Every structure is written in structure tokens, then in C-alpha cells.
Amino acid sequence: RGVLRPVLSRPVSAVRMAHAHALEPVERRFRLRSYGSPRAARATRGARAVRALAGAAGASPLGVNFIAAWLLKAVDALSTPSLPAALALNTLLATWGMLKGQQMLTNAGLLHAWILGVVLWSTLGPRGWWLCVLYLACGSAVTKVGKSRKEALGIAEGRGGRRGPENVWGSAAAATICALGCRFYPALSLALMGQRGGAVAWGLEVAYVASLATKLSDTCASEIGKAYGRTTYLITTFKKVPKGTEGAVSLEGTLAGVVGSIVIAVAAWCVGMVSAFDGLIALFAAFVATNCESVIGATAQGKVKWLTNEVVNFFNTAIGAVLAFALWRASLQLRGIVVL
Fold first, then answer.
1. What is the pTM of this model?
2. What does the DSSP assignment read for 186-226?
3. Which candidate, 3, 242, 259, 339, has a CA 20 to 30 Å from the CA of 149?
4. Distance of alpha carbon 99 from alpha carbon 37, whole angstroms
């Protein structure tokens, strides 16, 4: 009361100036946490737009600026890696999915997807989280393409394409490792080597994108190839084989896989996770890793007891992530930049 009384006694212009200054720390916090992203500029423009609209409408600057400050705080909480926000958002979405009877995941798969979502939001923030959601949505959609044809041939995904815990972690375990590395490697590097290692975290983001691009590429190649592939060949011998054979490839499936990886790479570039050049690295790594997965399927899967489809998926995404990180690091070294 003692603070508001002298403020309310001032002219309107003085009140507007006082609360414009009150918003500055909020805007400054956006700049400090954004690490150069456009989010800081958008937040600042948003705050100024709210104040301008308030002045034009003749509204009370005190009330409007107070609301604007809280809105910016809410956006800040939902735009940065935060465990409370991760728990709240993923719990809300999981509950909504259960009430709506979602068909993308089994009940156990939904629980494990909730864990995955909490980890990704609290480490990479909304950008990494949305990218994984995009993979899940696209992967589930492409699984249903040509479903009747694949069911007639007996090569459709089980459970109607619904993902279980093994599918969640087979597809996203490598991405989760990259996300945890992004979050904890800088502090670990500072403690062990006396250097923060932020550049490595940047490379791990590229690896994260590549792992998801690899998995969506593999899913698109497999599902579209089984549904619409005219001729399928075994990747190791190029002999014609039936659709659904492990290690089989087709032109239609290969092109669909490239499109799937492009979707993830372009989305990652749009949200600012990777540069255009790093996106190309992720695309190349995804293409190589997807073909490596076909080689593993043709030579070892079915012959090695523990080499299940989910284990192969993990190796597939891990190859994409490791190759992308290695290419990213090599590209920096060619430019004379040493990465610890």
C-alpha cells in the first residue's frame, strides 16, 4: 500500500514510465536466457505493443503493465527448460490423452512418453520437446498409410500401430542421451576440465536433431515401402525380395525416408535448434544411418537373439547421432575451431 499510493498520486505519464521501468528486468531476463535467440526480441516487442495498445485505448497503465509483466513471466516459464513446467505440461497432456482415448500409444507407452516428455522439456526446453512430438505425430500418421494393404500382406505394425514402452525408448533413447548431455555436459566439463564446454552442447543438439531425423526417415522408408514399394531389393545383394523382408529397400521407401528426415531438419531449423548447415549435416547422417539400419536388418537381425527391432532402432538412431556429432566437430576443426 505504501508503494502504490505515491505511484497512483503521480500523473498518468509518470505512472506509465514507472511501470515501463518495472518491465525492464523481465525483458532483460529474456535476453539473458535466450542465448541470442529471437525470443528476446519478440518478448520486448510484445511488452512494448501491450503498453502502446493500453495508451491508445486509454486504459490504466498501472493495471495493463502489471498484467503484461505477469504474462511475460508466464511465457518465460514456458519458454525455458524447467522441471516444474515440464511436469505440469506433460501431466496435463497425458491426462487429456487418456480422457480422449488417444490411439497413438498404449497405456504403458503413454506413461513412458510422459517420462520422455518431462526429460526433454526440462533439458532442451520447448524446442526439443516439440521436435520429438512432431516425430511421434508424423511416425504414427505414416504407420497408418496403406494399412489395409499391409494387413492383407501380414506386414502391418502390431497393435494397430500403437506404440508401447519398447517403441518409445527404442526410438528416443539416443535422443534422450543427447538431451541430457546438452543439459549437464557444460557443468561437468567445468568441474573436470575448468572449461564450460558449451560448444559441445551445441553439437549434441545437432546430434539430437539427427537422431530424430534418422528415426522418422526409417519409419517413413519402412511404412511407405511396405505399402507402395513396387520392387524391393535386399540392400546387401540387391536381389529381389518380398515386401517386409528385413533389410529390404525400395525406391519409393527411400524417397519417403529422405522426405521424413527433411521434415525434422527443417522443423529444427525453423525453431532455431540448428543452422542451415547443421541441418544438412543432420540430413546426411540420417540418410547414412537409415541405410546402416537396413544392413543390420539384412545381416544380423533374426540371427542374433537379442537383436530385436527396438534394439536395432536404438543402434540406428545412435549411428545417426554419433555421425552427425562427428561431422559437426570436423566442420569446426576445418575452420580452425577447437572443440573440447
1. 0.76
2. HHHHHHHHSS--HHHHHHHHHHHHHHHHHHHHHHHHHHHHH
3. 259
4. 36
